[in-house]
Amino acid sequence: MLSYVFTGLHGYVLIFILMVLEGMSLPIPSEVVMPLVGYYASLGLIDPVLGVLAGTLGSLVGSLIDYYMAYYLGLPFLIKYGRLFGIDKNRLNALNRWFSRYGVFAVFGFRFLPGFRALISFPAGLADMRIVSFIVVTFLGHLVWDSILAYIGFSFAAEWSLIIGLIDRYLYVITGIAVVIILVYIVLRLYVKPRCGDSIKLCD
Question: CA-CA distance, 2 to 110, in Å (whole number)?
Fold first, then answer.
C-alpha cells in the first residue's frame, strides 16, 4: 500500500507536502521522508532526481512560511506561539546571536542540524534578510541534506524493505498513532506552560 502512495505524480505531491510541514518545524522528520524517496527510487517507482527536487522545494516553501511569519508577525507572535514550532525566547535569542554573527552562513549551516534546521528561518525573517539570499542558501542547504538522506535510502534499500513491510502491514494503525502524536504535540505546544528553571524554556 505504501508503495502505491509513493508512485507517480501523487507520490511527488506527497513528498512535497510532507517536506513543507518539515520545513515549517512541524514533527515530520526529513530523516524518514527522504530515505523513503531513495528506497522507492531504487525500486524504480519514482525518479530520484524528481523525488529529491520535490522534497527540497517542499522544505524551501516551509522555510519561506516561517521566514514570512517572523517578518510580518514579528517577535511578539513568536514569543506567544513559538512553542508550536519548538521555539521559545531563550532559543530564539541564541539563534539570533548565531544569525547576527554568521548571517547567510548560519542559514546554510543550520540546515544540517536536526532539531534546529528549520528554526533558523525565524531570525532570518526577523532581521529582514534579503529574500533572494535566503532562498538561495536555504535551497542549497536543503538540497544537499535531502540528497544525502535519499542516497542513504537508496544505498540501504535491502534494510529499508524490512521496515516498509512492517509499515505496510500496520499502516492504518501507524497513521492513527501519527495523527494523535501531531495533535498532542500541537496542544502541548500551545497550551502547556513551560516549567521555570528549565534552561531552554521561557518562564513568565
Answer: 31
